[in-house]
Design goal:
The chain is an alpha+beta fold. The protein has helices spanning 19-22, 25-28, and strands at residues 3-8, 11-16, 32-34, 43-44, 50-51.
């Protein structure tokens, strides 16, 4: 299955297997073929290699101090 993405600032912002069916024709014309594993948020480096986004670290919620 071929994958297509609309890329802005080297980041896949929209990904589809059939952009003509899923997007307005003006947007669909901006899609280019990308490797099958590329999905939303992936970044293309200067050499043309794709990298998955780095997950943001989860911060523990602070607990209110108990009154004594």
């Amino acid at each position: 299955m071929t994958n297509f993405a609309r890329i802005i600032d080297h980041i896949a912002v929209d990904v589809s297997t059939d952009p003509q069916a899923h997007f307005h024709p003006q947007l669909a014309s901006e899609f280019v073929a990308v490797p099958d594993q590329v999905s939303w948020g992936w970044r293309r480096d200067a050499a043309g290699h794709w990298q998955a986004p780095v997950p943001m670290p989860v911060q523990a919620e602070s607990q209110p101090a108990e009154a004594s």
